[in-house]
Design goal:
It is built from eight helices and five strands. It is α+β, with helices and mostly antiparallel strands. It folds into three domains: 4-62, Nucleic acid-binding proteins (OB fold (Dihydrolipoamide Acetyltransferase, E2P)); 65-134, DNA polymerase, domain 1 (Orthogonal Bundle), CATH 1.10.150.20; 149-208, Helicase, Ruva Protein, domain 3 (Orthogonal Bundle). Strand 2 and strand 3 (24-29) form a beta hairpin. The longest helix is centred in the last third of the chain and has 22 residues, at 187-208. The termini are far apart.
């Protein structure tokens, strides 16, 4: 089981990225949006799910653990395959999925390509009572006051840096320092800035030795 993957982007397109891992290029299917728009050389960290079929092995990747959890719930619904689940997460974030299910509103799911009215209704019925465990508040934002988008990006970047081998304390400090220095608030920009600080600190420590 491949639980996560991290490294520089070798190529990207609509709904996929190729990540360099130990000299290999691993293609990962991702929700369309920020991750799939990563430029060559961007560092990414993705939580992954390996879907095994008789004729294929397909790796699906997500920027957050919540997206991965929702993906797992979606593909457990009868009639919803991995591609359809990816389509849902391209159109809706985890909080929006939870909010639609809580409101018994299938309309957001019907807007996703490949999901008809019956499947949309089945998603709502099947996921009822299962998404609160992800920690969403009634408003659809993560509970505990962490609904600030910039803070959520910062936390995701910190997790990504830890996944790339940095200590939790160093990763969090680098993210904070990068934000204080005016780094971009988007995932890729903040990750690049924090990674540059960590690499500079490592180089400086090596030079002093």
């Amino acid at each position: 089981m491949i639980a996560s993957i991290g490294g520089p982007v070798l190529a990207s397109g609509a709904g996929w990225v190729v990540v360099s891992v130990g000299g290999l290029g691993m293609r990962v299917e991702v929700p369309s949006g920020r991750v799939s728009q990563s430029a060559v050389g961007d560092e990414v960290f993705l939580h992954t799910s390996l879907v095994v079929r008789e004729d294929s092995l397909t790796l699906f990747g997500f920027a957050t653990q919540d997206e991965l959890e929702v993906f797992g719930h979606l593909i457990a619904v009868s009639g919803v395959g991995p591609r359809s689940a990816l389509g849902v997460l391209s159109a809706l974030n985890p909080a929006e999925v939870a909010r639609a299910v809580s409101a018994e509103d299938e309309k957001p799911f019907r807007k996703v390509s490949g999901i008809g009215p019956k499947t949309a209704k089945l998603i709502v019925v099947s996921l009822a009572g299962k998404l609160p465990e992800l920690g969403f508040s009634d408003a659809g934002a993560p509970a505990g006051g962490a609904g600030d988008p910039a803070q959520l990006v910062a936390e995701a970047v910190g997790e990504g840096l830890v996944g790339l081998g940095w200590s939790d304390s160093d990763a969090r400090q680098a993210v904070q320092d990068a934000r204080d220095a005016g780094a971009p608030e988007d995932h890729a920009g903040l990750l690049r800035a924090a990674l540059a600080l960590l690499q500079a600190a490592r180089s400086g420590a090596g030079a002093r030795r």
